[in-house]
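Recap quiz, item 2
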Amino acid sequence: NLSLFPPVRPPKKTSPKKPPTKQQAAMAEEQMEEASSSAAASGTPFQLQFDKPIPFQIKLAEWNPEKDLLAMVTDDSKVLLHRFNWQRLWTISPGKCITSICWSPDGKIVALGTEDGFVLLHDVENGKMLRSIKSHDVAIICLNWAEDEPLSRTDKEDLLSYEDRTTRFFPPAPVMPRIGGLNSGDTGLADENEEAIQAFSSASCQRFNILCTGDKDGCICFSIFGIFPIGKININKVPIHVQSSGKRTSYRLQDVSISKQVSLSRNLHQLVLLCSGKLINTDNLSLSNDLSVGVHCLHLDTSIFSNRKNELHQVSQQASSIQDLVEVVRASISMMSKQWSNAMNLFHEKFSALPSLLTAHGMESSSEDEFMSLLFGTHTSPALHQFLVSSLGEAGLKRIAKTIESAGRELRIVVSEHLQPAVEIISFRLAELRGLARWRSRFQNIGLDEKLMDGVTERVGMLVVQVERFSRVAATVLYLFQNFLSWVLKCVKILLSEPTDQVPSTNSELVVIFLKFLLDKDPIKQLLETDQIFEWDIDTAKHVEHLVVFGGFTDTKFLERSLAKQFSELEESLKEAFLMPFTTVSSQIHCQGLLPLYPVTSSDALSSTSTPASIAFYKDKDSQHNASSYSSTDYICFKIPDGSLNLRNFVAVIKDFCNSCSTSNTPSLSGFLLHIPVEYECVDLSLYKDNQVVLLLSGKSSSENAGRSWMVMLQTENLSFSQFSRTFPANYYNLQELEALELQLDTDYGKVRSVPHPLSTPLAVSASRGVACI
Amino acid sequence: MQGLFSRSLSPHQDNIVGKYESALLCLGNLHCYFGHPKKALEAFTEAVRVSQMNNDDSCLAYILGAISNLLSKIGISSTVGLIGSRYSLGNNIGLGTPLSIQQQLLVLLKRSLKRADMLKLTSLLSFDHISLAKFDLKHVQRPLVSFGPNGSTKLRTCPADVCKNLRLSSHVLSDFGTDGLSIANDNGSFSTSWLRNLSDASSSWHSSSTKPRKLITNDFDNFHFHAQPSPIPTSVLQLAGSAYLMRATAWEHYGSAPMVRMNTLVYATCFADAASSSELSLAYVKLIEQLAVFKGYSAAFCALKLAEEKFPSSTNSQIHLLKMQLLHERALHRGHLRIAQQICDEFGVLSSSVSGVDIELKTEASLRRARTLLAAKQFSQAAAVANSLFTTCYKYNMQVENASVLLLLAEIHRKSDNAVLGLPYALASQSFCKSFNLDLLEASATLTLAELWLALGSNHAKRALSLVYQSLPMILGHGGLELRARSQIVLAKCHLTDPEFSVSEDPCAVLDPLNQAAEDLQVLEYHEMAAEVYYLKAMTYNHLGKEYEREEAAARFKEHVTALENPRDEEDSLVY
């Protein structure tokens, strides 16, 4: 059952209509309208907007940040997109187990994390997959896609802004070649995505944003626009330095598993994440004890992203387009090779009948000789006659001609519409990147290396030469084929005593060349294979060496390679060049602080990943006027699992963790604990826009309240935060120090609504619209 | 690209019907080649008449292309009045008003293109695309007819069109078999060339068979010596190659140095076998220019020597011109003004005395004269030359050249301490560059603007700095040594002038660019600017209290100033 409530401001809740006793799990979603805050006191704070039963168990749900769209993942890993009024837009089944979901900041893309470490990006319009990126080895537990806060742009940064000149100088970039109607073989995945990819790459380059993905083993990857990988850290290997009473101690976390929450602040300055793992002291391994296994809150310094965002933006914009185009080139080459080998197979299959016929007639000459003697009019051997008239025949010949012609046309189209433009734009973009790399003071510290870029530029130049060589060889070969086949057709007609005036005139010299060099060789295929080494003559060698003096390619051996080989070399050097920024940026992400939250026993370590928790950054109220340098406060809100810290049914809210890590004097860590009435348990919780906490409480089955649930929204400002110290090494878990508050469902802490069903996760909160729970 | 056109006509000779008009067409092309536009036009007019009489559509298409070639080649103004009367193009499209010469050119090209497309004359089609690209490169395409307020007037050139046209023109290579006029004929030419290569082929077969590596031969690879004679006509190859040369030229305008180099290299590598000597030498000229700008003069002169061997200089004016350009630049940088003046005079002599002919050469000569005068600090004379040059360019509608002349004027005013006067020129140059997409020139105009603001006082340092930052990505990426060094100097100066900036806090912000500039200028042997760099360096070290480094920089400063003021061994400047 899904229930929707009319949209206003956004708290939400869900109510199942059918008892889950049935096999089919029932789920409901509600959207609630929050009465405007002034009217909040006057009764129902939330309204049920709509509800609807849905026949699956929903595992994850997330509201689109821009529109009234709710994306949900079911237990059997279908992804559903619903509008606010429950109108279903699309459903897709990626065929993989989905473990996390998030929206891009502009709401145009849904990112899905899968169990096997892929990030899938889907278009919001139609659910088409835009990209699939393998960035992790294990399940991706959490995704967070943060966008650069536009307010943080200052005048100076605007001046540093940079125009991507490509759109001005080039027509739209080529897309992957589509297989023509004639030979519709197995169309790869790539084909159906092509338009979407284009739309994606042009649209995504608007504002700087970073997708961070965290996996089960404690790796966090960062990718700009969700597509260009820019950094990766492994929490297991990050040293954590803790300053305590003048001493500096290093710790390391072991067996880390990131829990559901990773959050990058909106100015991209800080990253806060919750993870479970064992904390060990690297200076003194013996000091660790059982207590050190627990859930910890880590603060990572990602200021490289905000300090260098212009540079990163420019680089990733160019680099991601280059990677797209490299895919286009790859697809073009493989398609040409497929098309051509299909055509050649047919040709050789038909013409291979001739040698066997010759043997059958007891002749020792080769097919080449036979054709030659036919050409020069000496005689037509019975074998050749039989071959031309009966085994090949006019129809068969025409079929071959048609196949080769269409393959040739495809080849021509692919070269001129896909391969050449793609290579041209790649070379332009690389030239731009190389230009950026020259600005050492700005780009060296994000790892854009001038030397590597020079190398790549050089390679792409060679690739252009190779493409030109290929198109020339292809044009010649195709012309010769056409000439030869018309000549054979003419011969067939003469043998059949048919009129030949329909056949185009042919050049007999070219027929000779064809017979000598093409009948049993395939120069096009040679160029499309990677393992060929070509011979080339001394004159050319001299010419190329001569050109070096004029600033030519210093690698004078490049003509030995085939087109495909040259392309793979380009790819390699591109990979190397783009790895530099990746490693450089990764090495500049440091851990700034650690706060142990609560211990877990190893038995329930696994379940801890599913404990409700939420992290959010709120802009400081007092700094809102000063647009250029605002700071933000982080709020961490989580449920303490029963039994841990000897607390039952508690929810903790902590704020200012980051600031307490980075600056020693200003607002220090504070928080409070909230005791949930015993007859309820907290099912899910979430932080909501203006420093509110939304809790989803469900009646315990044992109590009389079974089947009744509550949705609660609390204003954190109304609650008293008490400071607590970070005497971390001495005392691991300080949460007990916090003041415990009783949550009473009828108080004025916030707004409460009861829901007449048992509730289950997830709770999805949307800052601009409603809240849904399922 | 000269001579390109006459080649695309070669298939014509096979056309039996129209021998007379073909002859006229060739005559016209020859007149055009030797610089007699009027005679050429007469021949073309006659050819049009005859081919219309004979219904020879393809010849007509070629003539249209030839006339447009003529129009774009000779200085546009001299044809005013030549064409209007007999052709009355204006009337043809139903407009009473006479069209400007550029628009006539555009109309002709488009018509020729349409006809070529209809008649499947792929070579002509390709040629027309290249001509269109050439047109688009330098001219804003305005709609011929614009009705009412909806007629959008875009006042920028459209580089994407250039790119599209060039791509279309490259299709000639793959479509050569379908050209209606170039049917391969059985005249034995292939056998002849094959036989000629036979001895080479068989002898190298032996040598190659001794190689240990297993090599594959691709018989149709043009890089392979016993590759078979290609059925692709040379004219087609030349057209396909011209597209690459044209690309290189386009990128020279738009500002992407690696693209210029790459396209030229592709041309020199892949099309050298079929290229005409003038086009091939043009490619080499471009490569040497790149060397001079990015690697300094010694590398360039070394390459130039090789090029001169390859193309005997008596027959090749392009190489000769390049040599003079390089010598002039080097003389200016070294401060050998007498030599520079001498080369300028030589330049003046090279161009024809007829007005309207050889305009590009004349423009270049005056530009160089103005720069020489500027280097000699004769500001008013330099300004006078530049002003008259501007008038000429304006008269002949050479907008692209206008941008650089305006920039030169701004530079003259800056050097004569007249920053306020220079500002409007720099701004005008900048806006010209914007509308013609001359990104690199725009970046250097921005840099000049920054220098002008800086000259106005230290309170403008912030503005200047932001201007420098704007131009840096372009300049560092695509600018030559001189421009790069200049931008680094301005950057350092901005910091030094800024009252809020303190050297002791961030010495790297000043010293890094200065060191970089010093390095670049060393290669370039540019004494004047090198002296400036060392001066600034010495000042900075003085601030920092590093005396040893200060003295060192000061000594280098003195070295360069002496070299500039007492040019020794001036005669060296003509030797390379």
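The mean pLDDT of chain A is 71.
Chain A touches chain B through 77 residues (CB under 8 Å).
End of item.
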